[in-house]
Amino acid sequence: MRSRVQRQLEAEREGLPENTLPANFVFTDLHPRARDKRAEILEGLTQEQKFIDPKYFYDARGSALFEQITGLPEYYPTRTERHILQRNARAMAADCGPDCVLVEPGSGSSEKVRLLLGALEPAAYVPMDISADFLERSAIQLAEEYPWLCVHAVCADFASLDNLPPGLPANHYVIFYPGSTLGNMCPADAVEFLRRLGRWLDRDGGILIGIDLHKSTRILEAAYNDAQGITAQFNLNILNHVNKLTDANFDLNCFGHHAFYNEAKQRIEMHLVSKRDQTVKMGDIRIRFSRGETIHTENSYKYTRESFRKVAASAGFEIHSSWCDDQRLFSVHYLGLRGNSGKKDGKRS
Ligand code: AVJ
After folding, report:
1. Is 62 in the pocket of ligand 1 (CB under 6 A)?
2. CB 142 within 8 A of CB 11
3. 54 alpha carbon to ligand 1 midpoint, in Å?
4. Contact call for residues 259 and 221 (beta carbons, < 8 A)
5. pTM above 0.90, yes or no
6. Which tens digit of pLDDT belongs to each residue from 218-243?
7. Contact present, 164 and 103 (Cβ < 8 Å)
8. Do residues 29 and 165 lie in contact, with contact meaning Cβ atoms separated by under 8 Å?
9. Whether the CB of 231 sits within 6 Å of ligand 1
10. How far apart are CA 154 and CA 204, in angstroms?
């Protein structure tokens, strides 16, 4: 089925008056080029420590399983972050300043931003995602729900985007990056990534970012080894997705879920453990596994306030404000470019 944006473009070409799109909705497609997924996956699987990039968790079933994870009793991050956003929306709005352009890389269903929109009243909201269809549907839905809000969706691969596209309001930008997604990167990559985001910003801009906190191994390991086994299914499903993408023949029964806290590196590691010596085919390539050997599927770094301050500082940012829950499970920070007071239009004291 053609999308509503495509139908509208066709109607305009033919001079038809059809306009089914909300007036407060704009869509810019930067046509992110599809990377060679098979080559990328194969490269990871031929390293000494085999790995698969965690972005491959998220096919339709993986996304649904992650959705389920966010509601599990052991998985504290999502509900805790929502609680922090809800409780501190006004203070966050004061840091963001009036009439900002709120940009959300990897916006998905734009669920969390709804907790902020009322307090923030941004001049525009810019959801950005690599999946055009899903982005379009979520952004139109949001525009219909918030008729006063200008929603300017941008289809792009934000990880490799050097500049925001032209045509956005000229107001200062605030980047919203919730969910501790930064935790998937090692600190060096996180610095590089934040530095890249910084290039989108002018002096008044900032980043509102969710970061999971270092805590007892017991709580952390429970969050990635839930009693219902949903995280195990989520981890194993990456092999299903890889089978579809690369014509591989991974047998999910021959691998097991293993997640543990690597205290020295302050990260949760997720692995798939080969239950036996086995050979997996990917087209005409054979990948050998010995019993007990693992595929590393995810890192989820946990920060202290100090370790996160260092990462932010290395990327040229300072923490203007931090918020967390009473149990200090999760945190949200407002980062400003270093050397900037954080004052917006003189409205803050
Ligand atoms: C979406 C990357 C923040 O690291 O906690 C959840 C993904 N993996 N359970 C996380 C995940 C296993 C999640 N992030």
Report:
1. no
2. no
3. 9
4. yes
5. yes
6. 999 999 999 999 999 999 999 999 99
7. yes
8. no
9. yes
10. 22
